[in-house]
Amino acid sequence: MQEAEEKEYLVSVLAKNNPGVLLRIAGLFSRRCYNILSIVAAQTENTEYSRILIVVSGDDRIVRQVDKQLSKLEDIEDVSVLDRAHAVIREHLLLKVERTLQNSEKLVEIAAVFHANILSVTENSMILELTGDAPTLNSFLELYSPYRIEKILRTGSMALATD
Fold first, then answer.
1. For the chain, is the Cβ count within 10 Å smaller at the N or the C terminus?
2. pLDDT digits (tens, 9 = 90+) for 57-72
3. Regarding beta strands 49-58 and 117-121, do their DSSP bridges make them parallel or antiparallel, or are they unpaired?
4. For the chain, domain boundaries
């Protein structure tokens, strides 16, 4: 018997902006033993609603089940699984890296290649900002890894359907 292919799905949830809605969503995933790879929640253009983007790993059966279960929750207005081919997907990264006289120029060069913003420079550190897709952010981090990364703050995937 062939095993179902496991991949990452982007689930977009439109929810009423009520207390506890995010907790109920996380609880649903926990009870069903589904793994949330990332979750981003933010108010929409209508202050009564929030858009929650969840990256979940699994097969088609799991994502259909997630869709069905989320749709049953109170305060959920809409659930859709985004097609990556028809969506703009981005993550945001803040990186604090150790800065020395010897590596300062190289840190700036790497930032320039990626069009990253340099937000802060002190005698001992540099804070950079980059927005892009996951592979771009991963490459950026890989190039900075030899320079003693002090802190990383990375959002989950944010996405909007193009159609």
1. N
2. 888 888 999 999 999 9
3. unpaired
4. 7-82, 88-161
Percent of the chain whose pLDDT exceeds 90:
79
Assign 155 to helix, strand or coil. Answer: coil
Contacts 24+ apart (CB under 8 A), 79-84: 79/11, 79/12, 79/13, 79/14, 80/11, 80/12, 80/161, 81/9, 81/10, 81/11, 81/12, 82/10, 82/11, 82/12, 82/159, 82/161, 83/161, 84/10
At residue 4, the pLDDT reads: 61
Give the fold, CATH level 3, of 7-82: Alpha-Beta Plaits (3.30.70)
SS3 145: helix
On whether the CB atoms of residues 12 and 45 are closer than 8 A, the answer is no
* Backbone conformation region of residue 26, classed left if phi is above 0, alpha if psi is from -120 to 50, else beta: alpha
101-141 pLDDT, tens digit per residue, is: 999 999 999 999 999 999 999 999 999 999 999 999 999 99
* pTM for the whole structure: 0.83
